[in-house]
Amino acid sequence: GETPEAAAWRELEEETGVAPACVTLIAVSKDWVTYDLPTDLVPNLWQGKYRGQEQKWYLMRFEGADQDVNIQTEHPEFSAWAWMRPADLIENIVPFKRSVYDAVLNEFANYLPE
User: Where are the domains of the chain?
Assistant: First the structure.
């Protein structure tokens, strides 16, 4: 019975190495956002058990230093990371997740810099 917020804090640290003390929670998406994996990826990801995800998004302000980010975790999910403007995220995300990022960025727009 992990809550969505508890899962967000856990995954933040598991996937990026960022401790909860380095961020402040700003906002939570009203709705769950879903995406489907492209059919050619389904057998290769998550041992073929899932065809997509349903996610609740949490906007957090990072207040640490770059060295607080460590993506070389036990089970790495990322090969690189970079700071970028919200507008540049859409161009840099895998195509099958672009609609998710677009929806989330629109919802959080009032909290984000231009």
Answer: 4-111
Q: Which helix (H) or strand (E) holds 86?
A: helix 86-92
Distance CA 37, CA 113 (A): 30
CA distance linking residue 60 with residue 8, whole number of Å: 10
| Residue 82 vs residues 7, 16, 30, 56: alpha-carbon distances, Å | 23, 12, 27, 22
CATH homologous superfamily of 4-111: Nucleoside Triphosphate Pyrophosphohydrolase (3.90.79.10)
Retrieve residue 99's tokens: 């609609």
AA letter at 57 = W
Tell me the mean pLDDT per 10 residues along the chain, length 114.
96 96 98 82 59 87 98 90 92 89 95 86
